[in-house]
Specification:
The structure holds 2 protein chains of 2 kinds. Chain A is of the alpha+beta class. Chain A is built from 8 helices and 5 strands, in the order H-H-H-H-H-H-E-E-E-E-E-H-H. In chain A, strand 2 and strand 3 form a beta hairpin. Classes of the chains: A alpha+beta, B mainly alpha.
């Protein structure tokens, strides 16, 4: 219903507040992006995403065991999603405060948390299909591809996939669902948690460990 | 007030919806909040570290200590009151009926959307809201069926707070209103205006209408809460700091809604006429 009216909104232009936000975001994520020229056409990127989407859909709709689904998704994730970059961004200002060991440990935990969160929700996406929409420029030389996700008996959802090509091959660096960015929301969760626990990165690490341990 | 707002997701679930202002709890809650804040307004200390300061400014949450108290009060009370009621509602009432009642609640709110769109000077949006109201009240049996959607008039939300924003009124600090959810000074003011704009508060006080008004209000609160059951449960389970997650998602989505309102430049003259 409502999703239609937001088809054209791109996160990058939200508010003056947000512009600052996203500028920081892009420079943090893609320090070298400015110098790169993007060599992919919009049509190529659409095709690329469609391919990934098809792979995801076939995993979701397949009847293999949960573990096998998880493994297939891990493969897709490692191949097309820049999990390290996303993880680094989600740690916000604490990335630089963290020691190299903490950084490494954090990224490992982040990978697990992410794949757990995805596999938990695969059930909800049974019977999913999607439609690739238009491509528009996003912050920091990135491009945003719009998709409409259709699920049986559920309202359609518009999701924007933020794609970076700064390192050569395209990688997914953010997902914007219903106007809220995955990485921005997640970062605000993590940084606020750290700040409330005496600015200690260790507190986040043990919380993530607990989260993973609790996961069935 | 809007009822279909989505919080993003922790991880790939675009469907997590935000705890959102319930439709219309009484006005005094706002007044009480105002007084509460005035009395207990403890401000968060302003950080000195430049990055922490940037984050503090970004969060726009000067009254964070008070807001957090309001948040935990709300979630505590919710856990033992509204949440079980909403669960019972979902359990007892078939989905089709819930959907129809949800449609009715949305239709009954169209006058507020209409006036807000008019205030923002957006004739096409106002026209959509007006057409939805007329079509759904008549063809949709008092709003129970969303016929207007099939006629090409999709639901949209405009709140008086968004209208104020389109006039350039700043949001003021973030607020978490008890039992109403995330807001700001501007949007809390907008909420009070929306109570005033709703025609249901002006109907003659006959016995039947008072009953209608009460059941409509109660239903609105329960139905809205029911819409967010799963999403809120997930959010509280998965995020490490649910308060901050809600604040972040609300701010992002609200800013996007305001931007959509401001950027809606559809012409009033139909395209076929201009040719």
């Amino acid at each position: 219903m409502k999703t239609k009216s937001y088809l054209l909104i791109s996160m990058a232009l939200l508010s003056s507040n947000f512009v600052t936000y996203n500028t920081n975001f892009s420079s943090a994520l893609f320090p070298a992006a400015q110098a790169q020229t993007v060599s992919y056409t919009d049509a190529q990127l659409q095709k690329w995403l469609e391919n990934i989407g098809d792979r995801m859909v076939s995993v979701v709709n397949s009847n293999v065991s949960k573990q096998e689904q998880k493994n297939s998704f891990l493969e897709i994730l490692n191949q097309y999603v820049d999990v390290d970059t996303i993880g680094r961004f989600c740690l916000g200002r604490f990335w630089r405060i963290a020691t190299p060991d903490q950084q490494k440990h954090y990224l490992q935990l982040f990978h697990s948390v992410l794949i757990n969160a995805i596999t938990d929700r695969l059930g909800e996406y049974k019977g999913v299909s999607f439609q690739i929409g238009k491509v528009s420029p996003a912050e920091g030389n990135n491009r945003s591809i719009e998709t409409i996700i259709r699920r049986p008996k559920q309202p359609d959802v518009t999701v924007q996939w933020i794609i970076s090509t700064s390192n050569g091959a395209p990688r997914i660096v953010d997902i914007v669902g219903e106007n809220a960015s995955l990485v921005v929301t997640q970062r605000d969760d993590y940084t606020s948690f750290i700040a409330r626990n005496g600015n200690k990165v260790e507190a986040l690490l043990s919380a993530l460990e607990r989260q993973i341990a609790r996961h069935p | 007030m809007g009822h279909s707002k989505f919080i993003p997701s922790l991880f790939l679930c675009p469907q997590i919806k935000s705890m959102k202002k319930s439709y219309r709890l009484s006005k005094f809650i706002i007044a009480a909040t105002g007084i509460g804040i005035a009395l207990s307004a403890c401000k968060a200390p302003v950080p000195k570290d430049p990055e922490a300061l940037a984050e503090y400014r970004q969060n726009n949450d000067k009254y964070e200590p008070t807001n957090r108290k309001m948040y935990s009060l709300t979630t505590k009370v919710d856990k033992y009151t509204l949440r079980p009621v909403a669960k019972a509602y979902v359990w007892a009432v078939p989905k089709v009926v819930r959907k129809s009642l949800g449609n009715m609640i949305a239709t009954m709110n169209e006058p507020v959307v209409f006036f807000s769109d008019v205030g923002a000077g957006k004739p096409r949006r106002a026209g959509d809201a007006f057409a939805r109201w007329c079509i759904n009240m008549l063809g949709g049996i008092g709003g129970l069926i969303d016929v207007a959607k099939y006629a090409g008039y999709n639901h949209h939300d405009t709140t008086p707070g968004m209208t104020l924003a389109s006039w350039g009124v700043g949001s003021g600090p973030y607020l978490f209103l008890p039992f109403l959810g995330p807001s700001s000074f501007r949007d809390a003011g907008g909420y009070a205006i929306s109570v005033g704009l709703s025609p249901w508060n002006y109907v003659p006080r006959g016995y039947g209408l008072i009953s209608f008004n009460w059941s409509y209000n109660m239903l609105g609160v329960i139905s809205t809460r029911a819409d967010y059951l799963e999403a809120m449960d997930k959010l509280q389970r998965d995020s490490l700091d649910p308060y901050a997650t809600i604040r972040s998602a609300y701010t992002q989505q609200h800013n996007a809604e305001i931007k959509a309102l401001i950027d809606d430049h559809r012409a009033t003259t139909p395209a076929w006429y201009l040719k």
